[in-house]
Amino acid sequence: MKIGELAQLAAASVATVRYYEQEGLLPPAARLDNNYRHYGAAHVERLQFILRCRSLDMSLTEIRSLLAHKDQPQGACADTHALLDRHIALVQERMAQLQSLAVQLQSLRAQCGQSPADATACGILQQLDGA
Question: Is residue 2 a contact partner of residue 36, using CB atoms and an 8 Å limit?
């Protein structure tokens, strides 16, 4: 199949396929006589795996590690567990940071009442100015 077909099957863009290929996450495709790339079922499966990992907000480094574990199944599953545990911790840390950000924004929003005011009297702008 051509790159467009691969992209369509995996619900990705052609640019995404090329990017993952450049990053070494997807193996290079075979070239046909007309120099078109030719992808197979293994490419579809691997691309879908990568996309599922990205949907879980995993970094390319994490995906590379998971692919290495997948490609060398004789390795310990504990490495995969450790990677996922680290990712969970990062997500939890980010959630705490976002919760703190929400509190800060709510506090900032409380600087002004509900009635529209002239921008020069806006408590939010004054607070952001450091006044």
Answer: yes
Report how far Cα 65 is from the mean position of its chain's Cα atoms: 15
Phi, psi of 129 (to 5 degrees): -75, -15
Torsion of CA 86, 90, 92, 96, to 10 degrees: 150
Question: Of 99, 118, 102, 120, whose CA–CA distance to 110 is shortest?
Answer: 102
- Determine the length of the chain: 131
Cα(70)–Cα(114) distance, integer angstroms:
55
Token pair 């490609």: residue:
71
What's the rounded Cα separation, in Å, for the pair 65 and 86?
13
pTM (two decimals): 0.80
Radius of gyration of the chain (CA): 23
pLDDT at residue number 1: 93
How large is the greatest C-alpha to C-alpha distance in the chain, in angstroms? 70
Q: Is the pLDDT of residue 118 over 60?
A: yes
From 127, 81, 72, select the one nearest 105 (Cα to Cα). Answer: 127
- pLDDT, average across residues 19-27: 96
